[in-house]
Amino acid sequence: GKDRGQLKSVTYNKQRNNTILKVEFHSQLYQDGSQKCSEYSFKFDGQECSQPAPIVISNARHSGGGGSNFFPAEVSGFCNATSCGPLQSGTLSISVHVHDPCSGGDGYTGRLGSGRATSYILVEEYCP
Questions:
Q1: pLDDT band at 8 (very low <50, low <70, confident <90, very high)
Q2: What is the pLDDT of residues 117-127, one digit of tens each?
Q3: Residue 61 burial (CB < 10 Å; 0-12/13-18/19+)?
Q4: Which residues contact 76 (CB under 8 A, 6 or more apart)?
Q5: Using an 8 Å Cβ cutoff, are 14 and 88 in contact?
Q6: Selection from 33, 50, 32 nearest residue 41 by Cα
Q7: Cα separation of 17 and 86, whole Å?
Q8: What is the b/e burial string over 94-120, where b = at least 16 CB atoms within 10 angstroms of the residue's CB?
Q9: Which of 21, 38, 115, 125 is least surrounded, with the fewest CB atoms within 10 Å of its CB?
């Protein structure tokens, strides 16, 4: 079935309070149907990034017509705060979520044809 909610998560030990995190999610995405879309976003301890901005991409398919709808994708960005405040040093849960803002979005993640593709999260910590 289609993917919903949390897709993948990692635990990261942030070393310092005054750093910014760069996060990347790499996978194969698939969107089925016509006039459909799915949205993929990062969350930090369950909250979307607010500074500098939410880390989100949308995967849309505007017309049907067969053929392969699989494509490699990356969701990436920087985060130093959520609505709960700055990301402090210590253990963070970093996760990627999917939802369908379009009616009936039908997105699949990590597929490659009839098999499975690798999906992963990469986290790097930078001094500003």
A1: confident
A2: 678 899 999 98
A3: buried
A4: 22, 23, 24, 25, 55
A5: yes
A6: 50
A7: 8
A8: bbbbbebebeebbbbbbbeeeeebebe
A9: 115
